[in-house]
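Sample A.
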Amino acid sequence: MSKNYVASTFLKLQDSQVYTIFAWSQKEPEIVPAKSWLTVLEIFVHEHSIPQAYAIFQEIKLASIIEKVTTELEPYQALLQDALVLLSDGNLTIFGKGFRSFIEKDMQFELGTLSRETFQVLLHLFAQAQLVDDLEEIDDLEKFSNLVDELESRGLLSPAPGSIDWGDLKKTVPICQAFGLTRGTPVDRYYLSKFISEIRPQVTGQVLEIGGTPKDKDFYELAPGTSYKVMNLEAGLGVDILGDVHDSSIVDSDSFDSIIIFNVLEHCYAPWIAVENIYKWLKPGGKCFAMVPSSIRIHATPKDYWRPLPDAFAWMFRNFSKQKMYVYGNPTTVIASYHGIAVEELTTEELDAFHPDYPVATCIMVEK
C-alpha cells in the first residue's frame, strides 16, 4: 500500500530566509532553500497521496499568482517578522504572536480555505525570501517522490492521520521485558560503549568506580598502571569500599584521580548530594565520568528515582571547572530502548542519528 503524507511544521521568515521551526525543541531551525519545498508542503496540507499531489504540483508550479491570493494575503504581510505559519492537516494558519498565539489562541488567522483553492499561499507569503526557483526541475514522479522523502526525513512531512503502520510496536507489553537482553544488546549499552571509547584515555591514576563490579575494569580496558577500586552498597568479592555514595565520610577528600559512576545516579534519592561528594573525593584536577539512562523502563535495584536529563546533569556538575556533555539518542532508539529492541536489530545509522529532544543516554565528563 502506498504511503500517505501530511505537512507538519512551523515556518518563519527571518533575515530574508524561510526557516522551519521545530516546536519547543532544542533542534536548531533549518533553512527552507527552494520554492519546490514550500509548494510541496502546501499541497500536502490538503492532499495526502503522492500521485495526486504530484498531479497538483504539475498544474500549479508554473501558474501565475492569482489576484485573489494577492488581495487576501496583503493584510498579513506586516505580521511575518514576528509570526509563525503552521502547516497541519487541512490547516494553514498564521500565528501573529508566534508560539504565544498557539497557546493563547490569539492573533490566529486561518488560510486553509484559500490554500485549498489555489495552493499558492506559501509562495506569496514568502515571496520576498531568498528561495531557489527549482519548480521546473521537478519534472517527473521520481524526482517528486525523492523530494517527498527528503521532506519526511527532515520531519516536515509525516504519515497522514490514520495511516500510521504500528506493526509489532502496537503492544501494551514490551517486546523484551529485560531491556533487550533476550534479543541481543540493550540500546543504552551501545551508547555507554561509545562514551567509554571517547573518555578511556582520560581515566587514569587512582580510579574509583561507584556501583560497579571488579569485572568492569576489563570491560573498560583501562590503561595499564591504573589503580582500580569499587564502591558498592552491598558487600561482595572485589568490593573495596562498602557504603552509600550519599555519605561523604566513607572516602577521604582528595583521594582519587578518576571516578566512574555509570547507571547509578538514577538510583540515588538525592543525586546532587552524590555529585557533591564525588567533587570532594577527587583530587584537584581529577575527573568524573558519569552516565544515566534518559529513556529506559523502570528498574528498581533497589529503587529507581530519577531520569536526569542533560540540563539536570549540567546543573548537578556545575561546580566543576570543566564539563563536556555527551548525549545520545533519537526517536527510533527511544522507542527501541523502552520496548527492549536490541542493538543488533537496528542499523548503525539508526543508532548514531542524534536528536536533542530524544536522549536515550546522557553522559558527562567533568574536571575538578
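Sample B.
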Amino acid sequence: MNGSDLVAFSPITDRPRLAWPNGARLALWVVPNVEHYEYLPREVRLRDPWPRTPHPDVLGYAGKDYGNRVGLWRLFEATDALGIRCTVSLSMRVIQHYPQIHEAMQKRGWEYMSHGLYNSRYHWGYAQAEESAVIAECNDIHDRLVGGKLSGWFSPAASYTVNTHHLVAEAGIAYWADIFHDDQPFPVKVRSGSLVTVPYTMDLNDAVLARRPDDIGEFCGQIRDHFDTVYAEGDRVMCIALHPYWIGQPHRIGPWMRVMEYILAHPGVWLATGGEIAAHFRANHLPAIESHLAERGR
C-alpha cells in the first residue's frame, strides 16, 4: 500500500477553490483532546504508554489527570469568554467515568470526535475484527449518552492501522482526522461507504511542543504566524489542537487567549466544528473535487 492508495494526489493550487459560508476566508476548528490514560494499562502491545517506570507511573499519570481535574475547567472559562464552540477529540470512556465533564461539554454544545476508548489503548497491532469492535463500542457510547452516530474519528495517539479508514467509513462516520496531509478536506479511498478528511495538526499541537522546553510564547507565535499565512491564502482549514493538562496551566491560558483574540478580531474567520466543515465540504465541494480527480486520472 502506498499513499496514492489512500488519497489521490492533487496540488492544492490546481484544485477548484473552496468557498466557506458567508464568504469566510478561513475555516477554523479548535480541538481540545479530552483524554483518559489508564493508571494500570490493560493493553500493552507495540508501545508502552508509561515507559518511564514500571506500572504505575504516578508522575506520568498525575500530569495527565491534571487536565481533567483542573486544566479543562480553566479552558471552559477561556473558550466561553472567547465564544468558541470546540470539537472534542474524546477518549469515549471519559463521558462514562466523569459525568461532570460530559455535562459541561454538552452544556456548551461541544461536538465529539472519537479518540478511541482510552489514550493508553493504541490500535497498532489490532486485528481488523478487534479494531472494528472498538469503533463500534465508541459509536455505541456516543449513541447512548449523546444520541446518534459519531461524525468524526481520530485514533488514540494517532495509532491507526491499514484498516482504520475502511472501518471508520463502514461504521457510518463522516470524517477522519488521522492523516495530516493537507490544508483542505479531501476524499479518502475506502472499500465501501464514503469518507473525507478534515485537517488536524501535529504542528499547532501543544502536546508536541510539551516535549520541548516549556515556551507558551513559542506556541502562540506559531499559531499567529500560521494564521497570517493561511488567512492570506484563503479557502483553507486551520486546526488548533490543545491538551488541557498543558494549555490549562495557569501560566499558559492567558497568552493563548490573547492570540485567539487576535485571530477572532479578523473578519471572515468561520469558527466551525469538524462535523460542520465536513458537511459543508460534502454538500458544496466534494462532487467538484471528485470530477477534478477523475479528469486528472484521464
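B remarks: The longest strand covers residues 26-34. The first helix runs from residue 58 to 82.
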